[in-house]
Amino acid sequence: xxxxxxxxxxxxxxxxxxxxxxxxxxxxxxxxxxxxxxxxxxxxxxxxxxxxxxxxxxxxxxxxxxxxxxxxxxxxxxxxxxxxxxxxxxxxxxxxxxxxxxxxxxxxxxxxxxxxxxxxxxxxxxxxxxxxxxxxxxxxxxxxxxxxxxxxxxxxxxxxxxxxxxxxxxxxxxxxxxxxxxxxxxxxxxxxxxxxxxxxxxxxxxxxxxxxxxxxxxxx
Length: 220
Prior knowledge:
The chain is α/β, with parallel strands linked by helices. It is built from 8 helices and 7 strands.
């Protein structure tokens, strides 16, 4: 397990205490985290370790059966959600890279959830736009191109069931959202997204200070 917290709000000591004070993590999630970290620098793209059990628990708590994620990387979030789905549940996973997503496949198989994961390689917006414009999904996770977060949200919302939940990652931008942000910067993209969702009467939302900020959105 990594020593450094992904959250800018936590010291390494507090992060270690957080990890020690929750239920033991699933062995397949731990193994996939370790394999991803063995690959080096791109591991910043992986969700924080504490997010994985949270996503599994949330999937179970809301009784999700149909889920979707935009941005799979090595597949930890897909694994976590799939483990919370019932046997007939499915998560559609959208990603641009076969190289990175292939790393996760053996761990999906070992965990016995590969049959629940529908991996689609290509731009996430293209994948979304060929899906039926019907209220299908109970749960969505957004962690792909940050400059397209608003577009992802707008494409997903009509496809979410009433009461469905979206989770959106990295929305605090390592704390930079409270400082100056250039219009073309990634921080500016997060600021625009956060303002866009907060002003939308179709949903209720809040930002959880989990990892680098996780927006919790519920469709009314």
